[in-house]
């Protein structure tokens, strides 16, 4: 990557914040530490960011609230890095719009690899040449604007949700297994973590249904995977 990549690190523990910033610098990117949700909001208002690393237990505005605010306005990738280990918290954050969830204590090399991986995907979505509009029923994907519309109303998809939906829209008759979908979108080996795919598909369905509850767009092919519903 030749352009400057800016990553906001929202973590109130000074030692952990410094460690994350060090990882980011070693990867060739530019970190900006923030030690509270309120401070992070100030940085978000002043500049554009390519990624956010976000702790949940923050002073002032919580990480949960900050995540909700960010995903309502921007599709930039957000990686949660938290000491909260329970599955419901992880699922809740993914449903809210987080792209990944890493638990503390974390492995430095794993964090480094995940940062690189998410940035590659995000840049592929935002910088690839536009091809064509994808249309199915009353839903339309504008690959130039990187946006999804139903009856002209824009949906607020995260970067990951957008990429999954484009995959389905581009091959409307194909059944994508969870392995197909994961390896196509995440660009990583699939180890059978069905929950990750399930959560993102559920998020996409919910956002589609919020605009048009009378229509079903994604079909579950039991024992196989997912495809667009005709």
Automatic annotation (TrEMBL):
Residues annotated with 4-aspartylphosphate modification: 55
Gene Ontology MF term list: phosphorelay response regulator activity; transcription cis-regulatory region binding
Record key words, sorted: DNA-binding, Phosphoprotein, Transcription, Transcription regulation, Two-component regulatory system
PROSITE patterns assigned to the protein according to its UniProt record, in alphabetical order:
OMPR_PHOB (PS51755), RESPONSE_REGULATORY (PS50110)
User: The organism sits in which domain of life?
Assistant: Bacteria
> Any idea where the OmpR/PhoB-type domain is?
131-230
Q: Looking at the keywords, is Transcription regulation present?
A: yes
Q: Which Gene3D superfamilies match?
A: 3.40.50.2300, 6.10.250.690, Winged helix-like DNA-binding domain superfamily/Winged helix DNA-binding domain
Location of this chain's protein in the cell: Cytoplasm
Question: Which Gene Ontology terms describe the biological processes this protein takes part in?
Answer: regulation of DNA-templated transcription
List the InterPro entries. CheY-like_superfamily, OmpR/PhoB-type_DNA-bd, Sig_transdc_resp-reg_receiver, WalR-like, WH-like_DNA-bd_sf
Its GO CC terms? cytosol; protein-DNA complex
What are the residue boundaries of the Response regulatory domain, all occurrences included? 6-119
Q: According to the UniProt record, which residues make up the DNA-binding region?
A: 131-230
Recorded protein name is: XRE family transcriptional regulator
